[in-house]
Specification:
The complex is a heterodimer of chains A (188) and B (152). With 188 residues, chain A is of the alpha/beta class. Chain A has six helices and seven strands. The radius of gyration of chain A is 20 Å and the shape is globular. The longest helix of chain B is centred in the N-terminal third of the chain and has 10 residues. The chains are: A alpha/beta (188), B mainly beta (152).
């Protein structure tokens, strides 16, 4: 009885494994192909496509207004995945707000994508007088952050997109003020 | 995609554990009513007490799960919060005994690493068999973390 009941599940799993194997070989082949195309081609594949996915996003803010990231194309864009339940996330955000004030007019834009409830996001944003958009990403945002290199879908996770629309830096865990200022000074 | 995954893995500090390895779940049915739930917490990691949600299915629970007091920590935003380090043992009980019944433990937990990284809430399920009436505790069942992908 048990064997019979499990059989279709086992078949599905085996089918999925074969699919994964094929996909893996194709991906490896693509990797080799890109590799022979030179370093530029590899960089292009690694940094342009995921950045484009991010720049194509439209997400609601904590008040429910839709915000499109495409409006900041051509600027130095720093996208920070965060949540109020993540203490290290909250700790680094006041420094982000300071840099937004300092470099906003020169073309720096921070965008927060929260994996959280809207009311908590509103409350925290008011508390620290957040001066850049706090968008609501939900758990879909975590999946997106995974495609950007956040293998464990942990927070905070920050992606720096340069003016050419390429990922210049990704960071899992807090960005130290000094490191962040170096990045901004180099790319602004 | 392969290039992205490999590149990203190289850019991260390698030692951060997957949440199910940082917080290792196991459970043991104590009798026909109660299940003991344990998280073994790796060094440098902690779990939040108020983020725990424990349930047994099917059946109604006798009440809120028993969770030991944690270590008090002052949080700027949430006020006083309690955290667990090392390990935590909780108990969850059904409202009515179900000797010999197959039950599913649903354990939701959320924690962080000291290096400044938090994991999203994690839901894990364990299939358990409650012991027959009058029998001693059942065996310890450990949550088996998923195998690593070939590309990691």
């Amino acid at each position: 009885m048990l064997t019979l009941a499990l059989y279709p599940a086992a078949m599905t799993r085996r089918g999925a494994l074969v699919l994964l194997l094929v996909a893996g070989l194709v991906a490896l082949g693509a990797g080799v192909y890109v590799g022979t195309g030179g370093r530029f081609a590899a960089d292009e594949a690694r940094t342009a496509q995921p950045a484009a996915t991010l720049l194509a996003l439209t997400l609601p803010d904590a008040a429910g207004h839709e915000v499109s990231l495409a409006q900041w194309r051509g600027q130095l864009l720093i996208v920070n995945f965060w949540a109020t339940w993540c203490a290290p996330c909250r700790e680094e955000m006041p420094e982000f707000a300071r840099l937004q004030t300092e470099f906003g007019a020169k073309g720096l834009q921070f965008v927060g994508i929260a994996v959280d409830d809207a009311d908590k996001v509103r409350q925290f944003a008011a508390e620290i007088r957040l001066n850049y958009p706090a968008l609501m990403g939900g758990y879909g945002a975590m999946d997106l952050s995974r495609t950007l290199g956040n293998r464990l879908m942990a927070l905070p996770f920050t992606v720096v997109i340069n003016r050419d629309g390429r990922i210049a830096h990704t960071q899992l865990g807090p960005l130290k003020s000094e490191q962040l200022r170096q990045i901004v000074a180099k790319l602004i | 995609m392969a290039a992205l995954t490999l590149g990203a893995a190289g850019a991260q500090a390698p030692e951060l554990l997957e949440p199910e390895r940082a917080f290792r779940l196991s459970a043991r049915p104590l009798d026909a009513t109660t299940v003991e739930v344990r998280f073994a917490i790796a060094d440098g990691y902690y779990l939040y007490r108020d983020k725990f949600k424990l349930g047994l299915e099917p059946g109604a629970l006798a009440g809120a799960p028993e969770l030991p007091p944690g270590k008090l920590k002052q949080d700027d935003f949430f006020g006083k919060v309690e955290t667990y380090r090392g390990s935590v043992v909780a108990r969850v009980s059904l409202a009515a005994p179900a000797p010999g019944a197959a039950v599913t433990l649903r354990a939701e937990s959320q924690g962080c690493a000291d290096r400044g990284v938090c994991y999203p809430p994690q839901v894990q399920k364990l299939a358990l068999t409650l012991p027959p009436a009058g029998a001693g505790p059942g065996p310890i069942v450990e949550f088996a973390p998923a195998k690593k992908s070939w590309f990691k």
